[in-house]
Amino acid sequence: ANKNINAKLVLLGDVGAGKSSLVLRFVKGQFVEFQESTIGAAFFSQTVAANEATVKFEIWDTAGQERYHSLAPMYYRGAAAAIIVYDITNQASFDRAKKWVQELQAQGNPNMVMALAGNKADMLDGRADAQTYAQENGLFFLETSAKTAANVNEIFYEIGKHFIFF
Length: 166
Ligand code: GTP
Ligand code: MG
Prior knowledge:
single chain; alpha/beta; 5 helices; 33% helix; binds guanosine-5'-triphosphate; binds magnesium ion
């Protein structure tokens, strides 16, 4: 029998980390060099399938600018999954990602599936400290590139599998 699951997913992370670019790559297969900074939040949906089951992601792409921080709980409250995105070339964006993880651990849904995306992987070789951090905090971790598409479908697919198999 087919199983069709809807899952609300929120993207959080510093301004310019590449949240919108990851969503645009995942949903439309596109990348733009001059992606505009998100105002408030944007909504998308996309379905992944595994073993005759489907997960329809209802995706909230939030704005990283600090003045929108107070809106974030509206988007992560009730979310089944989160992707916390940072830019691997920018240490401050990794620090910001850790703050988001703390906020979700404190205020988010305790069963939330969380993934950490080290984005812009096309620009640098990987950082080992993020892998350790992710393991310690129970996060699924992948380095991604919205530009080359590396690991973009994979990160959504790995999250989707949690809802299908667990
Ligand atoms: P806010 O909406 O302001 O919070 O930013 P955001 O996290 O949505 O970042 P956005 O997707 O707008 O990307 C910011 C810039 O980084 C854009 O110019 C993108 O083209 C670029 N960018 C995003 N992902 C990648 C990537 O994987 N590789 C490279 N080289 N550039 C990227
Ligand atoms: Mg954006």
